[in-house]
Design a protein that fits this description.
Length: about 110
């Protein structure tokens, strides 16, 4: 079990380097739950993400979706912005305990 946790941590650390630029979607357009702050956002088909999905037993029908890694909800978006210093996204599926969010689209806060 420790090996699995260490491997997952190593994969997340590796993927955290490649964060895409925001596309400018407004945060108010997120209708699937709170906007998430993710350390990185990658394609589900990328090597590290697909390996992580497999280890966690998550099967996706479409590997062209973006997956947020190590995410937490942003609960307050004020006039001065938010506390997200990584990638703010709106995701379709946030039910994996913050480790992975599926179907993410970058948003502008």
């Amino acid at each position: 079990m420790q090996f699995k946790f260490a491997f997952v941590s190593a994969v997340l650390a590796t993927l955290a380097v490649a964060t895409p630029a925001p596309r400018g979607e407004p945060a108010s357009s997120c209708s699937t739950g709170p906007v998430q702050c993710c350390n990185s956002v990658e394609s589900a088909s990328s090597g590290g993400v697909s390996t992580l999905l497999g280890l966690l037993g998550i099967v996706l029908q479409d590997l062209n979706v973006d997956v947020g890694l190590t995410c937490s909800p942003i609960t307050v978006i004020g006039a001065s912005g938010s506390s997200c210093s990584a990638q703010a996204v709106c995701c379709e599926d946030n039910s994996h305990g913050g480790l992975i969010s599926i179907g993410c689209v970058p948003v502008t806060l």
